[in-house]
Write a structure and sequence with these properties.
- This protein is mostly helical and 449 residues long.
- The chain folds into 2 domains: 214 residues; 211 residues, no CATH class.
- 75% of the residues lie in helices and 0% in strands.
- The chain is built from 15 helices and no strands.
- α5 runs antiparallel to α6.
- The longest helix has 47 residues.
- The relative contact order is 0.07.
């Protein structure tokens, strides 16, 4: 009997070791194959049905990774099941199973980390491509019209590719990692408690979150360059001399041209990576206000050397328009930056008024800060609501909650009927109202002293 038992145990041990070896080879195949498929990206986004109605407009790459992982893990799962049933009856394989479980768990997690790294490489390569293109433009000195059109087309293509990378990362973080981990965690769950399983998921989410932030920075930085060019045209190249501005009649076309950049980004992110829409827009809106501040200080001694009352009221009306339209995406930091910009404009307008009064032979008294604020507030009260209604089609994506929730019927019905008239206080800029209602404005206080 003993002579029979020994060979049986040896065969079971051999079977166990061969199974373990084959499982390890499957784990290796999973990671190697993931690396191979990650070398090629088509940049073509899948349809809503192909991605199972996911809000992330992914390419085929995450689904190829998913198929590789499922193929390997299904085979591993079956082999471990057979090993338990066939061998455990006559041979204690607890130690071997523990080793296999841990090897499979680590291979699964590392495969996701590898894939995250490959996605990050795509983002880094796109960022480097953009940097190289910008350096070439600097070295060439200037671009003619054809070069500008070609550059704009290349920029648009690069931005869309960055958004594809961002969508793939978001999909893996929010959907794929959780889906596959829950599907296969029972393989190693006998030796993992709930806290350890939670730690695994936190580790995966952290890996993708850090990468998501990095690629989002690259995307918003690329968009900020476009916004800066449009903001420069809006403030300095729109054909208006701010020291002798015409009477304020409403917002200028340049205002809508600048806003349309944000409308385009909103549409792009909404269709490509909807869960990241609010975060992206808040970054860009804060960046827009910072760009305004930067352009003001860069040109306060040149193109913005003087700012008369009409110019001040024009800019204050348009800033109030921006703040009202983009209110959903105005962070606390953006509000503070906007207030700083408004105060800087007020100070510049007061300085310009004082200089004009000093050079006037009749010594006409300069306009006080309170008078300027009251004048700007009056223009806002008279014009802002009408401008919001006039441009409601341009700003629908920001002002219509029904559009953001995906209900087309309500959105279209609002276009067919006149918009209801709201009390003016509801559309007045919050930071502007604070300046108007309070005499504690730093600039006003300084001038009164």
């Amino acid at each position: 009997m003993c002579l029979t038992t020994v060979p049986v145990k040896m065969l079971h041990a051999l079977h166990s070791e061969m199974t373990k070896l084959y499982i390890l080879r499957l784990c290796s195949w999973m990671r190697v194959t993931t690396k191979e498929v990650s070398k090629h990206e088509t940049w073509v986004t899948l349809s809503t049905l192909e991605r199972n109605k996911s809000p992330y407009a992914i390419s085929c790459l995450p689904l190829e990774f998913r198929e590789i992982t499922i193929s390997a893990m299904d085979r591993i799962e079956l082999m471990i099941f057979n090993l338990r049933n066939e061998t455990a009856k006559s041979y204690d394989i607890t130690r071997q199973l523990q080793e296999i479980h841990e090897s499979v768990r680590l291979a699964f997690l590392n495969s996701f980390r590898d894939f995250a790294g490959y996605l990050g490489t795509f983002g880094a390569e796109l960022a480097q491509s953009r940097s190289n293109k910008e350096n070439n433009h600097v070295q060439n000195g200037y671009m003619n019209g054809t070069d500008r059109e070609s550059s704009a087309s290349m920029d648009g293509d690069l931005h869309k590719k960055l958004l594809v990378v961002l969508s793939n990362i978001g999909y893996c973080k929010a959907e794929l990692s959780d889906q596959l981990y829950n599907k296969y965690r029972h393989i190693w769950s006998p030796i993992r408690d709930n806290d350890e399983r939670s730690a695994d998921m936190r580790d995966l989410v952290t890996s993708f979150s850090g990468l998501e932030d990095k690629v989002l920075d690259q995307y918003t930085f690329a968009k900020s360059n476009v916004i800066r060019n449009a903001a420069h045209n809006y403030l300095l190249d729109s054909g208006i001399h701010w020291g002798a501005a015409p009477v304020v009649k409403g917002i200028r076309d340049a205002t809508l041209d600048l806003l349309h950049i944000l409308v385009a980004v909103h549409a792009e992110v909404y269709s490509g990576a909807r869960p990241l829409l609010e975060k992206t827009m808040k970054i860009l809106v804060e960046g827009l206000v910072d760009i305004f501040l930067s352009l003001f200080y860069e040109n306060k001694a040149k193109d913005l050397r003087t700012l008369d009352a009409n110019g001040f009221c024009q800019l204050m009306l348009e800033l109030e328009y921006f703040e009202t339209v983009l209110n959903t995406y105005f962070s606390t930091e953006a509000q503070q930056a906007l207030k700083s910009l408004q105060e800087s404009l007020l100070e510049k307008a007061c300085e310009s008024g004082s200089e004009d009064a000093a050079s006037d032979d009749k010594q006409v008294p300069s306009v006080s800060p309170d008078d300027l604020l009251a004048l700007a507030q009056q223009h806002g009260s008279d014009l802002l609501q009408g401008e919001l209604e006039r441009t409601r089609l341009n700003i629908a994506c920001f002002m219509e909650p029904t559009l953001q929730s995906g209900s087309k019927t309500s959105a279209y019905s609002s276009y067919q009927a006149p918009a209801p008239h709201h009390p003016q206080a509801q559309v007045s800029s919050p930071s502007f109202r604070r300046q108007q209602a309070s005499s504690n404005s730093p600039i006003v206080s300084r001038r009164r002293r």
